[in-house]
Design goal:
Length: 242
Amino acid sequence: MTAGRSNGERAQSSVIGVAILLGITVLALGALTASIGLAVENGAAAADASRVTDGLDSALRPVEVTGSHVGRIQATDGTLRTVPRTVRLLNDSATVARVEADALVYESGSHRVTFLAGAIVRGDGPGARMARDPPVVASSGGDVLVVGVARLDESAAMSLAGHPVELRTNVSHARRQLPDDEYRLAVETTTPAAWRDYFERLGATVTSRDLDGDGTESVVATFPGERTLYLVVHDLGLEVGR
């Protein structure tokens, strides 16, 4: 009887062990499948962000284009919308120029592509980088500052979901010369690091401030010395549609 019970217990233990091993295997396969799915999804989102970056770079050319221009962007997923953004020029005592530039933003998961004031910023997760630099130039001699600002003049919100989106622009340019002074350029943005890096490469001292109390900080670049400033507003007259 003792031997019989021992054999039965061993058989029962073997069955339980096999069941546990099968359960562990199923859980491991499920976790592997989920991780593969996430990797595939993230890869597709990254590919979409790359296509949108290229599309925006081709469709929105504020400096090179005058008059009508048509471009397209397309992605398998994600949203496209405009958000309010302001670009300001300041001297020591006041705001000397203000442009309601606004931004065109594509988002899909953790991937984000933003066209703002002529620059294109690509964000992947917590980081962001300039995919196209803004049309802002500081002379090496330190006596001239050229600030180009692209203005959208459009309000849009839509899902891409594989459908191509047409970006029509009718570009005009207005140039204004400001007198010699010490100037600061403030760009309202949610990706300050990319703008900070660019302005520091131009030799500016950079800080961040919420200038209008709306919760979105501006990157404020202070350019040393008195400079003649040329402000060029590139009005895109953007229309977004299918």
